Each structure stands twice: as structure tokens, then as C-alpha cells.
Amino acid sequence: MLKIKTEKGDCSKPGITYTGDMINIAVENRQGRPIVLELFYRNSLKKAGSVKFPANSVLGDMYSVKITGIDPKEYAYRIKYGNNETVDPYAAAVTGNERFGKRKLYGLFPETLSPALNKRPASPWNESVFYLLNVRGFTKDNSSGVDNKGTLKGLTEKIPYLKKTGVTAVILQPVYDFDETMEPGISGEKRLNFWGYAKGNYFAVKPAYCSGDPAKEFFETVETFHAAKIEVIMQFYFPDDVPESCITSCIRHWVSTYGIDGVQLLGSSLPLRNVFTDPLLKTTKILVTDPDMDRIYGNTVPDRKNAGAMLDSFMYDCRKYLKGDEDMLSAFSMHILNNPEKCAAVNYITNYYGFTLNDLVSYDRKHNEANGEDNKDGGDYNYSWNCGAEGKSRKKAIYLLRRKQIRNALVFMFLSQGTPMLRAGDEFLNSQNGNNNAYCQDNKTSYLNWNDLEKNKDIYDFVKRLIAFRMKHPVFRSAVRKKMMDYISCGYPDVSFHGEQAWHADFANYNRHFAVMYCGAYEKDGKGGRDDDFFVIYNMHWMNHRFHPPKAPKGKEWKIVMSTDEGFFDKPESVDQGEVMVQQRSILILQTVPLPAPKEKKTK
What we know:
The protein is of the alpha/beta class.
């Protein structure tokens, strides 16, 4: 029989806290029902005893109790409200759902974690490359080649790959203990919430994503990523009924306990002002969908930029321009230079919802029949184009066009001023066979097929070179907004728009081609010298166009370094300085290089 001693608890911090050998439990009880702490043996989950909350340990809706007389490692607990028994919503560790899709939860008494050893990378927004992934789907397929498939430890096995790609931060779809159980589909088949956008135990790591102790494994995962100079950003979904105090406490918990570098918040009732201005979170990257920064900060500019705006407008407008829609030049030109003062702009062509990049150029319509909702789920407005055939095609012309369109889309994203976010698998043409809402597909539809990496090595190599190119040349990732003025009197504005004739941009609704010149005098390269000048020509028209670049600065000439028809050139290629032909649906990058030194005349 348990010999438990109890005394008045501390209501100030929900969940489990320790003071010496005392265990403090504080829980919320909104309805004022009778409340009891139920204890269970951890190994068998058989009932071990009950503890009542003292009447003098109530403050508002918070009930608390301090207990001694148990070894916390040997017990689990639940909270009983009246006749209903449930897991503590503030439990920092849970058990009972070690298998994905199986769950009857019990709270655990968490161990105190040692302080973090590695410093956080703290990558500036303009030096960041985000990579969105699902922990389970990233390595679950046998082709992943990792030992711990579908787990956090399996994710760390892929760090060398992420480093080679050029990633500076991973964004993890929910790894808190969300409830993955769902109602069956129309035909009665079992379905699981693969993505994880559901209410759950927000303070606990999901055991089904771990190969061992969840808290330790997540802590070690963050530490391992930090040792590799890669940040860890977590997604959280908060329905409207989650209290604002819980949301703020949750974020603070993961930042202070595990040392994560950022969060992406999903939901319609978020305490954004509290989160953005919280002193503990001032250096934490906080991503939200298109926040109203003027409402949060008024006329002031935050001294440290911790907000990131996830911009669907960038995604959809770039897709429209990619497929050649009319009247898109003004919107596209705005997006590629967008760099707000009060927050960072996070740019992406694909996200977890909607088509993968491969499917974006392979399907006109969604194909979600497998989701069990009669193909009525998922967005109908994908702004995609299949390049002439729905789905897979053996036609060489379609194959080549799709690859070029993929390279075009990647250039849109990585040469825009905001922080780019790549969806996992897009770099080697992962496909979901036209499913644009694979939220319930816990199978090969959602698992990355790593065999595609070798099959599509040309695209992967292009992504690597494109990221490296962006990181090498700060004109494409300025820390401050471009002014489109010659404010240092060097003879060129920092950035300028051009049409077929230099200095004459024509954004007429029927045009689908224009160029952007970046002057390197406004940015310093990694060695402290000025960056190069670039002339980037965009032609999403189905016709070729001739451009006449501005005259190169004195002592320099233009050379082509990249074409989305062919990719990056190992050596810059010579080009007519007065006229450049740009193929249909293509992008060219011209870069200034020093003119060759004149040959000395030989004397007799």
C-alpha cells in the first residue's frame, strides 16, 4: 500500500514541478467538479492509489497538491474530474501511444533534463534556408536507409544530407503528442491524422515518433542539430478552445526546456502580441500566417525581428506567373523584393497542403480519392499546369518542359529577398500522385521515396547549387529592404526593373517577361568586398524574347552563369553585350566579370 504524504501545493505553474523530494502537481478545473489524482504503476498501468487535492490548495480554477513517498520513475498518473478520467493537459511526458494510431494516455513524472551543451545557431533571417518535413514520413520508407525509421533519431541520421543540401533550419510538422485517431472515411476505412494538426498534449513529445525515452530523444535531437549549426522549429496547431495562457506557456516550455529555435503557430485565435513581445521569446523565430504587424507594434519597429510571415500570396502568385497567366508582372516583382521592416517574409512555392513541386507541373486537378471523402477535400484552386498531360508522361517534350518549370519555380523562391522554405522531397521530385491533401495517408503516398534522389539527381544538384549561389551573393538576401535608388551615388540603383530595352520596364497586362538588375556595390560578400552585379531575366511567355541589358560597369562584361534550360554552367559563358535571346518559359542569370587584361604587345 502506498504511503503518500500530501501538503498544500503551488498553483502558479501547471503540470509537474519538483522541489527537493516533493512533487508538485497543479491542474486546471474549470467546472469545479470533484478532482482526484489517480496513480498507476508505470510498467503494468494498474491502479496504485488516489490522492485528493487539499481544499486550501485552490487558486481560481487551479488546484494543486505536493506529494512525497513515491519514486516518480515507477508511476504514471491521470486526473479524475467527477466520473471522467483523463490525462493532464500539461503533462510534460506521456505513455500509452508508443504505436502510431494506438492510444490510451497516462501522464508521466518527467525527469529533469541537463542544461543544453550546444549554443543555438541563431541564424539571421536573411541567411536562413527553411526545410519543412514530417518526422514520420521523412524516414519511414525503407529507402531512407536509416536505422531508426520514422523517428526523431532517424531524422538525426539525415543531418549530413541536410547539411550537404544547404539547409539551415528544419520546420517539423507537429511532434507534440497530438491525437492521430480519426473518424472512418465514407466507405468505412480506418484513417489516421498523419499530419498531426489536432489538439493534443502540448507539453509532451509524441512517443510514437521516438525510439526510446521521448523527452531525452527530443532533447538530444535538438542538441545534435545545433551541433551541426541547424535550427529546429516546431509547428503547433491550437483550436479556438485552447486558452491563450496555455499557448504562451506551451511555447515557453519548449523553448526553455528543449532549446528549440522557433515555432510556427497555426490557428485563428492566437495571442500574437503576447508571444511576439514576450521577453523570453525575443530571439525565438515565430512563424504565423500573414500577421498584422502594424496592429502589434504600431508605428514602432522592433529592435529584434522575431516574427516571420508565412505568405500564401507569394506561393499562389508565383504559381500563376509560372504557368503564364496574364497580368502577373506587378505582383511577381513585388514578391521577389518583399522584405518588411517589422517581420521576415517566408517564401515558398509548395507547403504541406497542396501539390508537391513535382505534382504542381504534372497535374491540373487534384486526385484525392484515396482520402475517403469522394475527392471533395483539399483545395480546388492549385494554380497548377500539367504541361500537356495529366500525371506521368513518357513524352520527351513534356518531360523536359516539366523539369524546366521546376527549375523556374525554384529560382523564383531562392532568388527572392525573403527567407525561402523548401518542402521536403521537392529537391528530388517527390510525388503524391496528384493528392493535394494527404493528411490521412499514413503510407507510401506521404512517405518520401529516397530512391528518387538518384533518379532525379540533376534537380537535386540544381537545388544545392542554387542555395549555394544565394548564400554566396547577398544581393539576393539583403538584410534591409531594397530602395530602388542610387543612394550611394555609384551610378546604379541597388535594384532596378527592365524590359526588353534596358531601363524601360513594361508591366502591361499582356507581358510575361521582364528583368531585374542587382547592383553589388550595395552589399558586401563574405570576404568584405563588394558583391557582383547581376541581371536576371524572367520570361514565362510561350515565345522567345530579345533583351538588351544595361551597359556593364567599367572594366567588366556580362556573362551567363545560369539558364533554367540547362542549369548552372561550370564556367560563365560569353554573351553578346548588346542583345540576349531568352528562350520561352526560361530564366537567365547574367553576372558581371572583369574584362580580360589586354595582351601586351611584343617588342622586337
